[in-house]
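SAMPLE LOG
Freezer: B-3
Tube label: C17
Construct: single chain, 248 aa
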Amino acid sequence: MSGHSKWATIRRQKAANDARRGQLFTKLARAITIAAREGGGDPDTNFKLRLAIQKARENNMPLDNIERAIQRGVGSGEGDQYEEVFYEGYGPGGVAMLIQATTDNRRRTVSEVRSVLTRSGGSLGATGCVAWLFDPKGLIILDSQGRDAEELALRAIDAGAEDVNIDDGQVEVRTDLATFQIVKEALEKQAPIISAELSMVPKTMVSLDEKDALRSMRLMEQLEDLDDVQAVFTNLDISDALIAQATA
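STRUCTURE (predicted):
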């Protein structure tokens, strides 16, 4: 599995297990609400909503919370009106950062994002400055659990995957958006799925010296600690050695 995906998985597991669980539920609820508003409240016909609900269930979010989030999205519930926005910027060493947020107040959110970036040696950029470096893709991570990882990789390719990586018993599968659901349904019959989501995948990776790389990884964590930030995508090449240092 690529270093970037491994680091993202570790961050998600940390968020699910530590004291920020309430914050995680808030972020998951916002994603469900936005998906329901954009495509309707039926997960059978709204692919984005189905993914958001699956992610909420994976993190043991109560069913009542999920239902309330859907109702807010379709207009029959009370609460703030959230929208999805992307901010673009740079981390230490000039690494690109694409920041996905959900907000009911753009002025507040951009101020918080800019503040975190500036304090950590980064900067907020203009719209379009780094977005062109990323492609929207489907990202599926499988746990081979003793199964032949190479065989799982071949099945993923046969189902329509664009790219497959294998590392430590886990299989990372990338797809285009059109085939994501087809590949996911084919693979969930073969092995447990650790995560399945829509992601922004960098076209090329960049390497930094150890100091700037670790600063960038800490910056990503600080950004994702913000209530309004859902995810941070970067083109930083993250090695296993860097992950070990960051999680020590």
